C-alpha cells in the first residue's frame, strides 16, 4: 500500500479516536460506569418511597431516572439503613445517596457532595388541635424525629432545649406521623418538604409551626470521597435537566411548583 495512503488512514483513525473520547460515539457515560446504584431511605416521601404497588417512586427517583437515561446507563435503587448511610457509601455497596440529604459540614468531612439542588428547613409539625404554638410550648412533651436525620443532629446541638422534651427516634417519618396523628406524640421535627407532603395527604390533620429548628440547609447528592468522575457526570446532567425545563416539570408533578435551585 502507498505510504501516503497509509499515513492518511492513520490520521483518520486518530481523529476518530479523539472524536469518541470527547463524546461523539453515542454513550455519554464513561466506559467504566456500567450502572449507578442509588442508596435511599425508601420511606421518605415525596423524595423516595414505596407506593401501593411496592414500587419505589418520588421526586429524587424521577430525577435520577432522567439522569441515568441521559447517561445511557441503568440505575438501581437500593433501600439502606439511614443511620448507616455513610458506611454503605464508603464500602462501595452504593454509588451515591440521593434522597433529600442535607449538606452539612459534618457530612462533607466524609462524603463528596453535588451542588445543592433544593432548599430545606427543619420545622415542627403538630396536630391541628394542638395547644403547642411554638418550640417553647413543647416543654415537658414527647416529640418524634428520624434517627440520624438533620433534625436529630440539630437536637444534639441544642442540649438545653433537649433537656426540656422527651425525644423518640424513628427509623422513618411515616411511623412518626402516624404516632403524631394518634396522639402518641405532641409534635414531629421533620424536613419541611416531607412534612408539608404529609400535610397535603392528610388534610385537616396537621399544622406547621413556620419557624426553623436550627439552621436552614440544602439538599445534595452524596458520593464517595474521591469519586469526582461520577459526581461530575451526574452534575452535568442535572444542570441540563434544570436548564431545559425537564426538572421544572418533575418538580411541578411532586410539589405543584418548581423548587429546583437554578445556576446563577
Write up this protein.
The protein has helices at 3-21, 59-71, 85-91, 105-108, 150-156, 159-162, 173-181, 192-201, 228-244, 246-255; strands spanning 36-40, 43-44, 48-50, 56-57, 75-79, 96-102, 111-113, 118-120, 122-127, 142-146, 166-170, 187-191, 206-209, 217-224. The chain has 264 residues and is an alpha/beta fold. The strands form three sheets. Strands 1, 5, 6, 7, 8 and 14 form a six-stranded mixed beta sheet that branches. A hairpin with a 5-residue loop joins strand 3 and strand 4 (56-57). Residues 1-31 have low confidence and may be disordered. The chain has ten helices and 14 strands. Helix 2 (59-71) crosses helix 9 (228-244).
Multimer state: single chain
Number of helices: 10
- Residues in helix, %: 25-40%
SSE topology string: HEEEEHEHEHEEEEHHEHEHEEHH
In angstroms, what is the radius of gyration?
A: 23 Å
Parts with pLDDT < 50 across at least 5 consecutive residues: 1-31
Number of strands: 14
Relative strand content: 15-25%
Brief synopsis:
The protein contains 10 helices and 14 strands. It has 264 residues and is of the alpha/beta class.
Amino acid at each position: 500500500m502507498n505510504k501516503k495512503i497509509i499515513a492518511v488512514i492513520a490520521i483518520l483513525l486518530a481523529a476518530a479516536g479523539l472524536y469518541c473520547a470527547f463524546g461523539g460515539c453515542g454513550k455519554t457515560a464513561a466506559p467504566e460506569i456500567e450502572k449507578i446504584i442509588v442508596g435511599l431511605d425508601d420511606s421518605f416521601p415525596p423524595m423516595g418511597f414505596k407506593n401501593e404497588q411496592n414500587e419505589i417512586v418520588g421526586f429524587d427517583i424521577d430525577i435520577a431516572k432522567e439522569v441515568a437515561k441521559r447517561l445511557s446507563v441503568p440505575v438501581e435503587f437500593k433501600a439502606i439503613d439511614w443511620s448507616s448511610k455513610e458506611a454503605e457509601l464508603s464500602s462501595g455497596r452504593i454509588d451515591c445517596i440521593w434522597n433529600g440529604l442535607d449538606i452539612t459540614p459534618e457530612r462533607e468531612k466524609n462524603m463528596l457532595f453535588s451542588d445543592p439542588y433544593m432548599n430545606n428547613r427543619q420545622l415542627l409539625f403538630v396536630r391541628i388541635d394542638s395547644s403547642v404554638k411554638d418550640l417553647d410550648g413543647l416543654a415537658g412533651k414527647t416529640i418524634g424525629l428520624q434517627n440520624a436525620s438533620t433534625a436529630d443532629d440539630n437536637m444534639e446541638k441544642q442540649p438545653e432545649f433537649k433537656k426540656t422534651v422527651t425525644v423518640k427516634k424513628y427509623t422513618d417519618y411515616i411511623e412518626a406521623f402516624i404516632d403524631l396523628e394518634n396522639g402518641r406524640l405532641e409534635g414531629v421535627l421533620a424536613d419541611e418538604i416531607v412534612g408539608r407532603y404529609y400535610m397535603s395527604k392528610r388534610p385537616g390533620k396537621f399544622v406547621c409551626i413556620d419557624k426553623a429548628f436550627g439552621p436552614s440547609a440544602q439538599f445534595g447528592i452524596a458520593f464517595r470521597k474521591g469519586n469526582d468522575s461520577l459526581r461530575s457526570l451526574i452534575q452535568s446532567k442535572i444542570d441540563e435537566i434544570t436548564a431545559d425545563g425537564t426538572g421544572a416539570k418533575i418538580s411541578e408533578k411532586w410539589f405543584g411548583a418548581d423548587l429546583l435551585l437554578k445556576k446563577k
